[in-house]
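Chapter review. Work through the record for Ribosomal RNA-processing protein 8 before attempting the end-of-chapter questions.
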Amino acid sequence: SGLTPLQKHMKQNLGGARFRLINERLYKSDSAEAVEMMKKDPKVFQEYHDGFRHQVQSWPSNPVSHYIDELSKYPPKTVIVDLGCGEAALAKALHPKNFNVLSFDLLSDKTFVVEADICSRLPLPGSEPSSVERTEGEGQIVDIVVCALSLMSTNWLGCIREAWRILRPGGELKIAEVASRFTAVEDFAALVRDVGFKLKKKDDRNTHFTLFQFKKVARATIPEQEWSALLSRGGVLKPCEYKRR
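Structure tokens for Ribosomal RNA-processing protein 8:
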């Protein structure tokens, strides 16, 4: 690139500072504000993912790589939705293996990624119960939803609710999150359970990340007041703060 080692180092430091700033804003705003930020300045999305890619290099392992290996063992044609997909690494790895992967994030790359507010409404079929009778909704086509380090906004629980709406009865929700974000892992699992999921598996062997596998179960409608109460418990996930390098 024609840069001296010192210039490269300075550029890297500037990029790291910019990444931390964007990262902090994404964790401390709701998803509608994040969408607005990206629409105003699409470069922000690229800057964030450039910084994220650099950050990943220092990790002992990457949850996305774990999910690529794990999902490769599922039957071909399995319908997988990747929420907060970033650069769509999951789709790029699994499409050639005959999996159907639908990738959603704040901005489209016009190839793999569909633009959506993942905490609000996804452009996919599915419904919520309309009464106190426990059901799993209707019209769904999705077998598995993956949230790999993507529960970022203050209203992240909306993403879990959308996962429930679009998953087939008994469908799987796979979540990977930075271990230091949890105030208490049990409280996080209980909150996801209250949206209509059963915890099937938890893996906290990795020092950096905790992995969860949930199964969708039947539930009744969630009245507005109850939903507000659930949202108010969202603090069980703290913002992720990257240290200066």
